[in-house]
Design brief:
35% of the residues lie in helices and 17% in strands. It is α/β, with parallel strands linked by helices. It has two domains: 156 residues, Rossmann fold (3-Layer(aba) Sandwich), CATH 3.40.50; 72 residues, SIR2/SIRT2 'Small Domain' (2-Layer Sandwich), CATH 3.30.1600.10. A six-stranded parallel β-sheet has the order 3-2-1-7-8-9, sandwiched between helices. Strands 5-4-6 form a three-stranded antiparallel β-sheet, with helices on one face. The two termini are 20 Å apart.
């Protein structure tokens, strides 16, 4: 199969020999589904910055305003679908032995696309946390019937189960992401600006530990010169083609040697 987007053959072969792969995603993947980045430029929220709403201090000051913003976001996200980039990432589990999706996105679109092994570094907008008991649970009511929503167990206010500015990443999620970055054979860095730390350090951790690191983005980022290669373009175009090329490379290897190298044998499904 010939690449139509300039994907080098040696890159395809290198990824095709990987057994353990991490796909590290950012807002650019979901933007292709129509999810705004919510930096204060959208309609009703034009006079607000995300930094003014996504903090504990903002929530203490005006929980109704903060929940109104998240309700607005949830209604937008509920109306979009995973795109071909999400779908290609989910299909990687049928090609590679071990796939972990590490995402900075909170929209749940990887889960909806069918990915199973997902580490959510910044939480999930479809979960809520009790501010008193700290219990976390699915919370998919959209739009809200009461604002702010209250815990059914203790009556305390709920907050979105997302990481706000000034808060640390969930320890279990960060430790898991760091572990897979240290041990993977390859990492795909997809649609992230590589500017939000500490998440932005994960591709460099992978590279330092010997992984083949490929960036897929519509533009170069601060890590572009520090990793193996960057493919310029949208995830929804590049990832499906890349997966097809890897599968074709695997099929050729099987025909020649009867073995699949680092990828799974295909079931034909």
């Amino acid at each position: 199969m010939i690449s139509t987007s300039g994907i080098p053959q040696d890159l395809v072969e290198r990824l095709g020999h990987a057994s353990s792969i991490v796909v590290f995603t950012g807002a650019g993947v979901s933007a292709e589904s129509g999810v705004p980045t919510f930096r204060g430029q959208d309609g009703l929220w034009q006079k607000y910055n995300a930094e003014d709403l996504a903090t504990w201090q903002a929530f203490e000051r005006d929980p109704r305003l903060v929940w109104s913003w998240y309700d607005y976001r949830r209604q937008i996200i509920s109306g979009v679908d995973p795109n071909p980039g999400h779908a290609a990432i989910a299909k990687m589990a049928a090609v590679f032995d071990n796939v972990t999706v590490v995402t900075q996105n909170v929209d749940g679109l990887h889960d909806r696309a069918g990915s199973k092994n997902i580490v959510e570094l910044h939480g999930n907008i479809w979960r809520a946390r009790c501010t008193r008991e700290l219990t976390v649970f699915d919370f998919r009511e959209c739009p809200l019937s009461e604002n702010p929503p209250l815990c059914k167990e203790c009556g305390s206010m709920l907050r979105p189960d997302v990481v706000w500015y000034g808060e640390p990443l969930p320890m279990d999620a960060y430790e898991r992401s760091h572990e897979v970055a240290c041990t993977c054979d390859a990492m795909l860095v997809v649609g992230t600006s590589a500017q939000v730390r500490p998440a932005a350090t994960l591709p460099l951790v992978a590279k330092h530990n010997g992984a083949f690191v490929v960036e897929i983005n519509t533009h170069y980022t601060p890590i572009s010169a520090l990793i193996d290669t960057t493919l310029i373009g949208g995830a929804g175009e590049i990832l499906p083609e890349l997966l097809d090329l890897i599968s074709a490379c695997s099929d050729d290897s099987e025909d020649a040697s009867g073995t699949a190298g680092g990828v799974k044998e295909h079931s034909g499904v």
